[in-house]
Automatic annotation (TrEMBL):
Pfam families: Mesothelin. It is found in: Membrane. The keyword DNA damage does not apply. One of its GO terms (biological process) is cell-matrix adhesion. Belongs to the mesothelin family. It comes from Platysteira castanea. This is MSLN protein. The lineage of its organism: Eukaryota, Metazoa, Chordata, Craniata, Vertebrata.
Amino acid sequence: QLSCLLKMVTLHGIPKDLDSYPTDLLLFLSPSDYAATGSCSQFFINIGKANVDVLPREAPQRQQLLLEALACLKIPGTQINQENAEILGRLVCDLGGEYIRSSGGSLLKDLSQCGSFLPDQEEAIRDVISSGNTTFGPPAAWSAFTLSELSGLIPVLDHSILQQIPK
């Protein structure tokens, strides 16, 4: 339906008020199409607010969006800072384990918003948390507030991590 709606909206070119349309609609638009109305970073700020789960995780469109976002934000390697993580929004959920590991704890809060993880993402999350090298500190120093901040990651935590969290 969204794909069809986008075709209708863009029938006579990209409308200047594209930002006033639902963000989920932008998932079916490419950044180059959007360029007429704004910057690529503005496009990905809007995409980050969209429900990316409208597209299946393995959908080529969704994978292409992540690649284009990384290129737009000029992220050279696999390290994502907090500012770029905020721009990526829900696209953070598609980052591979190598991004999660090299970004340290800066992605944890954003990742806790994801519905599910691939095995390599889960392993990377456990590695980062186990290192204790995050803004949240080691699990032994966590509070109830920390657990609520990272509540979406609790299913990923293994026994060795859970055991360290104070009662």
